[in-house]
Write a structure and sequence with these properties.
Layout (H helix, E strand, L loop, with lengths): L1 H5 L4 H17 L3 H4 L2 H14 L6 H15 L3 H9 L3 H11 L7
Helix pairs in contact: 2-5, 4-5, 4-7
């Protein structure tokens, strides 16, 4: 997460980071242990920056699924998401770009 938030211009780092986080989110039951503002910032920034790029649809879907998983963790998850100033812009951008996506 630290590297993703530090080296924001590295497309490969961002894409691989989201892929690894997506895998972690799909198999772990300890997500709340790692839930933090920097994690949410990395996810939201990734969505905002990749939404208009070709070939990013699957990774954006992965990032949106991570948001779904965070919201399913109850009050703590929702609170961390709502504190992030990028939340609305990120999700609205996805909805605009992928209007037929069932995950968004």
């Amino acid at each position: 997460i630290g590297a993703m938030n530090t080296y924001t211009d590295s497309v490969d780092l961002q894409r691989h980071g989201i892929g690894i986080l997506g895998l972690f989110f799909s198999v772990s039951n300890k997500i709340l242990d790692f839930l933090s503002d920097p994690l949410v910032t990395a996810i939201m920034r990734f969505i905002e920056e990749e939404v208009d790029k070709d070939g990013a649809a699957d990774l954006i879907d992965t990032a949106v699924n991570m948001i779904h998983i965070i919201t399913s963790k109850g009050f703590q998850g929702v609170t961390v998401l709502l504190r992030n100033e990028r939340l609305v812009d990120s999700i609205v951008g996805c909805m605009y770009k992928y209007p037929n996506s069932s995950s968004i």
